[in-house]
Amino acid sequence: MIGNATHEIPRHEINLDFARNQVDTLQRLIESALEDAESDPDALSAARRRALMRFEYLTALDPSAGEEETWQAAVFASQTANAVFARTSKSEDAVPCQLGDRVYELPVLGPNHHATPVDWLTAAFLAVITRSEKRVAELVKVGKYTLRGSGAQVEDYVQPWVETLQRYLGGDQVPPALLESVIDLTDPEQAKFASRDFMLLVAYPPANILFRVLRGTAEQFNDALMQATTAHRDYWRQADFADNPDGFIALATLAMAIRGRDNGFPVEVESGYLPENLVNGTWSDR
């Protein structure tokens, strides 16, 4: 149980045998990618995606994230996500990055297509989930030039969402108008590339939770958290998405739940999408 949970939101059905096989397969693929990470500029990005997927598959097998393997997979996914941005803003030819038990000397690329605003959001959520002040601080320093230099086309809400989180995670005041603009721009009518369902069920809910963390009551926070977790399930249980590991855990919603809890709000939602040992901070980054 997470605190005195009053709302239980079951996760959609997942093929656990397939998930178990994927955990082992992805580990081999990660190891293969890391062998080339110091010479092939694209290898780190491959390792990053596989590391996130492996963490997600492990949460399918370990819904409470009570096993150390799941925790270590979360940390490794966070390390690789940050390493992509470490390669964008340094003047050296290579930058040292801790990935698992080893320090890699990774080639510096400058702004590049692997380091997009959406990639930044994923890295930020992982840093919050693993409660790494160091990785959060690194991401707060990533500049607009770096993100725009990726050349990625993104929905209009993404850039102000990044700015909101950089201010918030950096300990600065978040202007109300900034977060309100994020919420306004997640209106499906504002979408350029994403579906209506994505905007309503994936993009909007985490911003609404943060709005309640900053300006709401515990009851409003939990209402927003319940709505966001339910929306996540409604989106990812659709036939086209049900087997996608990105749906096995509500990454952005989980990160916002953690920030709410760490700011004194009780978490009264229980779900496999929100592994309780990650919400409660049972593990600590090492």
In short:
With 286 residues, the chain is mainly alpha-helical. It has twelve helices and four strands, in the order E-H-H-H-E-E-H-H-H-H-H-H-H-H-E-H.
What are the SSEs and their pairings?
Blueprint (H helix, E strand, L loop, with lengths): L6 E2 L7 H20 L7 H19 L6 H19 L7 E6 L2 E6 L9 H13 L3 H8 L3 H5 L9 H12 L6 H10 L10 H20 L2 H19 L14 H12 L6 E2 L5 H4 L7
Parallel strand pairs: 1-4
Antiparallel strand pairs: 2-3
Helix pairs in contact: 1-2, 2-3, 3-4, 4-5, 4-7, 4-11, 5-7, 7-8, 8-9, 9-10, 9-11, 10-11
Low-confidence stretches: none
Report how far the terminal alpha carbons are from each other: 25 Å
Radius of gyration: 18 Å
Total helices: the number is 12
Give the CA-based shape: globular
**Class from secondary-structure proportions:** mainly alpha
Q: Care to count the β-strands?
A: 4
Largest sheet: 2 strands, parallel
Give the spatial strand order of the biggest sheet. Answer: 1-4
Number of domains: 1
Fraction of residues in helix: 55-70%
What is the percentage of strand-forming residues?
Answer: 5-15%
What is the residue-averaged pLDDT?
95
User: SSE order, as H and E?
Assistant: EHHHEEHHHHHHHHEH
Characterization of the model:
The protein is mainly alpha-helical and 286 residues long. The chain has one domain. The protein has 12 helices and 4 strands. The protein has helices at residues 16-35, 43-61, 68-86, 117-129, 133-140, 144-148, 158-169, 176-185, 196-215, 218-236, 251-262, 276-279; strands spanning 7-8, 94-99, 102-107, 269-270. The strands form 2 sheets. A two-stranded parallel ribbon has the order 1-4. It has a two-stranded antiparallel ribbon with strand order 2-3. α8 packs antiparallel against α9 (196-215). The longest helix is centred in the N-terminal third of the chain and has 20 residues, at 16-35. It starts with 6 loop residues before the first strand and ends in a 7-residue tail after the last helix.
